[in-house]
Structure formats: structure tokens, C-alpha cells
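[SOLVED] Predicted holo structure with S-adenosylmethionine

Edit: marking solved, answer below. Original request kept for reference. I posted the sequence and ligand SMILES and asked for the 3D complex as C-alpha cells.
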Amino acid sequence: MFELVLSAPETLVEPVSEALMNELEALSVSVEDADADTDAEKALFGEPGMPAARPGWNRSTLKALFQTEEEASQAATLLLAQEWATELQVQALQPVVEQDWVRLTQSQFSPVEITERFWIVPSWHEPPAQAREVIRLDPGLAFGTGTHPTTRMCLRWIARQAPALAAGWDRVLDYGCGSGILAIGAALHGARAVDAVDIDPAAVESTLANAQANGVTVQAGLPELAQGEYPLVLANILATPLKLLAPLLCGHVRPGGHLVLAGILERQAEELQAAYAPWLPLQVLDSEDGWILMGAARA
Ligand SMILES: C[S@@+](CC[C@H](N)C(=O)[O-])C[C@H]1O[C@@H](n2cnc3c(N)ncnc32)[C@H](O)[C@@H]1O
């Protein structure tokens, strides 16, 4: 394969990426900060699952992969001939060094420590010696590998509630289950019946497969699966959907039960408290890397 490396100002990132993918038969296009690893490097991100606020940096490096050198070179010639692309520069046209992609991907996912004894471990790793509760999970299409602070905070909270889960919090609802990691975590810590729901059918499938691989029983389905009241309702989504879901999620919390919410940035605490105030008094329970865990118990 051949790689065409281009340098583009912010205004050209979107049209050039689209031309590469849609008309010039690039196999993939990646965009990086041309100032990466210098003092001028700038973070550029939106909330998980949401588009970034801007399509590119002041100056971006675009790397497009092509099957052959001829395709890569033709793409460069055609792009440079466009009158709207005068500020585009070709930096390189080079063969791509063969890599062991499986090994490279695997090396990026190591076991994740939730507590000293509770770990998330990819299938190609041995669990650490001190691990007592282990979720075996490989990166897949659905969100939730344990590497995101919001997931880790939920799992830490679940681990702390293990005695209550085993003693009587017999039903748990994981709303927005993704890979099913929270549902599996609750089941491993003693919850007897766990319902996991998501609007994404791929997440439902992934949850069922991951639960089976971990030897726990989880009922997974679309949101209609959630019925009645639960002693524990977990939802790691994002602030905006969490605000819309407030009456529904609170309606699933049994008297004396707990609601735990994640996917919320520190600066969003007050808007979440206001949105849930008619039903439950949310408090901040934990925080990590700018994200907070919020929760409340129903009287
Ligand atoms: C941030 S992921 C969390 C996954 C996992 N529970 C975790 O803690 O890592 C959020 C999940 O919520 C799902 N979701 C988003 N909006 C939803 C909604 N209105 N109802 C149910 N699920 C929703 C998404 O499809 C996604 O799988």
C-alpha cells in the first residue's frame, strides 16, 4: 500500500478528505495536528460520540492510504490541479511499511485496574495475580472497554457496593449498556438479575456475547426491556440524553433504591442536578479526568 501525506489549512480538511474518500478511491484518510509534539500542538475534541467542534487544526496533516502508487500519485495530481486547493501541499508519497496490525492493536490494550482486586483483562493477557473479580473483554464495536474514566468510575462504585448487591439489591438496570461492561460488573459483584438495555442493536448483541464469555447471566435488549422498579439503576450515557431521560430513569428507581449516572463533565453538574431535582437530589459521588459520577438514593 502507498501513503499520500498532505498538509492542509483548516478550511481544506473537509473538502480534501471527502474528495479522497468519495472520488479518488482512498482506502482510508486520517487527520492529525500538523503541530503535534510541538509547543503549538492544540487539543481538539468533542464529547465521546459527538463530532469535534472543528474539523481540523490550524494546519492539519492528512494521510490517505491507496492500494497502488499510481492511484496515490494520480490523487495528488488531481487535488493539486483544483483551483480551490491552492494552499494544499504534498509532503510525501511513500510505501507503507508492513506491520503486524493485530499485534499492534493488542499492544494498545492492557489490563485495566478498577480496584486492587477488580480488573478488566483482554483475552490475550493473563489476569494479574491479585485480581479476584475479572471481566474478560476485548475491544469491539460497542463502547465500554474499561479504559474510559466514566466506565471506570461506575465500576469502582459497583465494586464498593458488593455487599449490598449480594445481600438484597436483587435487580439491576444498566441503561445504555454498550459492551455490557457495567451489567457484567454488577453480576460479578453479586447482583442476581441484571437487565441491560441500549438503543443500538449492536450493543445488545455485544452485551449478550460478553456476558456469556464471562459466565454471567444478563438479560439484554432494546430499552422496552426495562420494566418496573429496580434497587439500582446505572446509566453512563452523556449529559444531554441523561437530562431527557430523567423522568424515565427516576421512574425505574424503587423506593430506597439508587440511581447512578455517568457521562457528565464537571461543568455540567448543576444542569444535571436541576434536570433531576423534581424526582431525585443528585450529588457528585466521584470524579476523574474532568468527568464526574453523580447519584442519588430515593427516599
Ligand atoms: C458511553 S456508552 C456507555 C457504555 C457502557 N455502559 C459503559 O459504561 O462503558 C453509552 C451507551 O448508551 C447508548 N445510548 C445512547 N442514548 C441512549 C438512549 N436514549 N437510550 C438507551 N441507550 C442509549 C449508546 O448506544 C451507548 O452504547
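OP edit: The chain has a mean pLDDT of 90. Thanks to everyone who chimed in.
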